[in-house]
Amino acid sequence: MSVRTLTINNIPVAIEEGATILEAAKEAGVTIPTLCHLEGVSDVGACRLCLVEVENINKLLPACVTQVTEEMVVHTNTPKLQEYRRMAVELIFAEGNHVCAICVANGNCELQDAAIQVGMDHTRFPYRFPDRHVDVSHSQFGIDHNRCILCTRCIRVCNEIEGAHVWDVAQRGENCYIASGLSQPWGEVEACTSCGKCVDACPTGAIFRKGTTSAEKQRDRAKLEFVVNAREKQEWTR
Amino acid sequence: MNKIKFATVWLAGCSGCHMSFLDMDEWLIELAKYVDVVYSPVGCDLKEYPEDVDVCLVEGGVANEDNLELIRLVRKRTKTLISFGDCAVTANVPAMRNMLGGSEPVLKRGYLELADETPQLPNEPGIVPELLDRVLPVHEVIPVDIFMPGCPPDAARIRATIEPLLKGESPKMEGRAMIKFG
Q: What proportions of chain A, in percent to the nearest 5, are helix, strand and coil?
């Protein structure tokens, strides 16, 4: 296996061929903000928070899905990137209906954390207030599309870890939403094993356990990690 | 020493931010040494928003004609205007009516469909202010100088925002303690 050497924020890194800039940054001890990235499942570059600048390439590249190349020179926290990251988070807030005060994930929300991380004290974009729905047809869980940021983590954990593929993205553009089954009520989707991995994966309060109210959502992220480690490294104890 | 002319206004919000302001407890006595409260639902009886206000905290989103008129007057007469709490910063809970689309479906839903007895739409022109089609965050209506999120912002955050202003400095609105929503 050949090794690639590159620099990230002037720190030299050597990493195996095929690794992503995000993995290389982790190796170098550089934190790049992420939102749609989830350890153990594939990356899609949906949220644009991990955009980085690479010298001699005049567009910004998502670190989670860009492979390293030899002598690549990467910058992860320039003023330009800070501004774009903040805009990305502001656009996510303006796009959906994110009312933190009444959300199950208040205080335990990766979108809220991202807003703090990028220094967002308000959004400069007008709120859209889209007409979205809540599906509580499942016996144990609910999905509130108002709070969904379309990161597609639920789709990926369900497909890649649980192997049930209950979720998918329906429609396109501003009408996109996470659909269960063949766009049926979640409770009617026979493929759903009620494992709850989507609840643990969801960064916001969009997918939740029924009966949880404001600021009560808990996630067992370690469960996802455990399943992935068990499979990949044959580590069967938790 | 010239005292700072200080005001607070309450638009479409629950008054929780003002309650949180009162949570500053004994520091309010300290604050009173530096400011004259010239307009406030919790600190002053004046009914007309005065001229030349130095600092004003604005709670609530802009939901009706009354809010709109007041916030425009406040902007004209205030040096430093602070969006105070999530309703002012994001329109928050009051704006959840925006998803119904327009003021008419909102009024019909509230006063006709959900009414138990004698359903009728409120109509007192000149007395009951007309609803705007959408509840808006303050900065979508007039320019805002400082944003203080929170539902409500706690007393420590309010103090940390106001205290630097008393010394002519700007507060640092960053980090979880200062800008977490909700």
A: 30, 15, 55
Report whether CATH 3.10.20.740 matches the domain A3-74. yes
Q: Which residues of chain B have pLDDT under 70?
A: 1
Domain boundaries, chain B: 4-170
Domain with CATH 3.30.70.20 in chain A: 84-233
Q: pLDDT value at position B1?
A: 64
- The CATH classification number of B4-170 equals 3.40.50.700
A125 touches chain B (CB under 8 A): no
Which residue of A100, A127, A131 is in closest CB contact with B181?
A100
What is the dotted CATH code of the domain comprising A84-233? 3.30.70.20
Chain A closest-CA separation from residue B176 CA (Å): 6
CB contact under 8 A, A112 and B181: yes
The per-residue pLDDT for range A21-37, each reduced to its tens digit, is 999 999 999 999 999 99
DSSP string, A163-217: ----EEEES-GGG-EEEETTT--GGG-TT-----HHHHH-SSSSEEETT--TT--
| ipTM attached to this prediction | 0.93
Q: B137 is written with which tokens? A: 């965050």
| Other Cβ atoms closer than 10 A to B1 | 5
- Count of residues in chain A: 238
